[in-house]
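Query structure, 354 tokens:
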């Protein structure tokens, strides 16, 4: 590759070719695709209030391949909290893309964050925690417990703490109390859990591998990172009530893949919306009932950014099918189409047995 360029992903050099039956040479057409890359990710580690976190260990995580969930060898930030990662197992260091990171503080606590690759300068890595705040100390080995605060250290009540959050059962979630404290008993037997912290009006925090039994855990949330814009129909009129979904998947779990990780909101009557997200990459799906649909490719966002995304929906299509009972062969009426990954109805229903 020319200097300053790289392959678009870590598996791009693998491609299928067909060997002719007569054994003649195989030709692979050029040019190959390449993307601009930087030589290394230069970052600076801060806490949720923007204060430097020197001497933290930083590792790049892998989420782009089903080969597993692993972290590269850590590098240690200096006294100025700055570090350099030479590569990311998640893909090329392409400006505008997001690199998932694991940050381990000097006292041994682990957190996850993301850095938006910059063409030059230093990327800020905002760790969702605040030193100097005491979380619960009486934590059992199989318990997930801690305190959730805002960026100023004020306890946040009513935060939903949800492990394995695609499983929407009472045993899998709890809410923080007035003091911001939460407890999930028997969350896991020593194995890390996937957990999301969500509260309306705040940017969610997701941790893919959160250790259980940690004493003094503090999670900080803020309102600083979001996408906003206006959704309009094909005729240019505001698409009031449109559903805006942002997908930060896939994420690699131990023994599986969390394919789609959705964060969503609804546009108001004028088609305006604001969707709070955590720093990462997001692919957008927009749907306005009776108006149209739209999809946008992955877009990276850094902490503290308020990015504008304005989109005009295209005319959608209607799918009509006949549902038949597989045993009796008779038409089946009243069935509802349901998307389990988004936990919502698709709007489709068989209305009559015909």
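Result returned for the query:
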């Amino acid at each position: 590759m020319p200097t300053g360029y790289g392959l678009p992903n870590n598996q791009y050099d693998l491609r299928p070719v067909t060997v002719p039956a007569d054994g003649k040479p195989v030709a692979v057409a050029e040019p190959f695709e390449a993307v601009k890359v930087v030589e290394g990710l230069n970052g600076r580690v801060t806490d949720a209030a923007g204060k430097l976190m020197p001497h933290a260990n930083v590792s790049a995580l892998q989420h782009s391949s089903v080969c597993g969930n692993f972290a590269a060898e850590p590098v240690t930030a200096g006294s100025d909290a700055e570090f350099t990662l030479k590569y990311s197992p998640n893909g090329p260091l392409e400006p505008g893309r997001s690199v998932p990171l694991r940050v381990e503080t000097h006292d041994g606590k682990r957190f996850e964050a993301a850095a938006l690759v910059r063409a030059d300068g230093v990327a800020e890595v905002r760790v969702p925690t605040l030193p100097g705040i005491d979380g619960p100390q009486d934590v059992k080995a199989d318990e997930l417990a801690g305190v959730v605060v805002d960026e100023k250290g004020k306890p946040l009540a009513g935060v939903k703490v949800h492990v394995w959050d695609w499983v929407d059962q009472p045993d899998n979630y709890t809410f923080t109390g007035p003091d911001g404290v939460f407890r999930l008993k028997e969350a896991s037997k020593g194995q890390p859990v996937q957990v999301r912290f969500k509260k309306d009006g705040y940017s969610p925090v997701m941790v893919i591998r959160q250790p259980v039994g940690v004493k003094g855990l503090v999670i900080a949330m803020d309102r600083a990172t979001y996408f906003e814009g206006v959704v309009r129909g094909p005729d240019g009129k505001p698409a009031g009530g449109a559903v805006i979904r942002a997908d930060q998947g896939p994420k690699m779990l131990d023994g599986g893949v969390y394919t789609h990780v959705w964060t969503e909101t609804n546009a108001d009557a004028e088609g305006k919306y604001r969707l709070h997200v955590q720093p990462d990459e997001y692919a957008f799906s927009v749907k306005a009932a009776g108006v149209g649909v739209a999809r946008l490719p992955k877009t990276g966002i850094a902490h503290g950014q308020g990015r504008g995304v304005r989109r005009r929906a295209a005319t959608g299509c209607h799918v009509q099918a006949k549902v038949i009972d597989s045993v009796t062969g008779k038409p089946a009426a009243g069935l509802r189409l349901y998307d389990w990954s988004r936990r919502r109805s698709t709007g489709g229903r068989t209305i009559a047995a015909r």
